[in-house]
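Figure 2 data, in text form.
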Amino acid sequence: MIERHRHAQRQAAADAVDELRAALAGGDIVLPSLGVDHQSPFTGVVLVELGCARPDVVRQMARAIRRGTAATARADD
């Protein structure tokens, strides 16, 4: 039963990684180290490793996030 729960958590983390990778690809952004990490010893949650990125890639991500949040705010008005 524990193994089934652990597998479900790893699958949820893998799905989140795939979703983020696809969203980033829409902005031509690649995080080479993006992947499923280990299970947290404190919470038991399987974590997602975002990895390291060059400063220009981080700025590109920040711009994409700002555009997305601005568009969401406009849609909410």
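Caption note: The chain has a mean pLDDT of 89.
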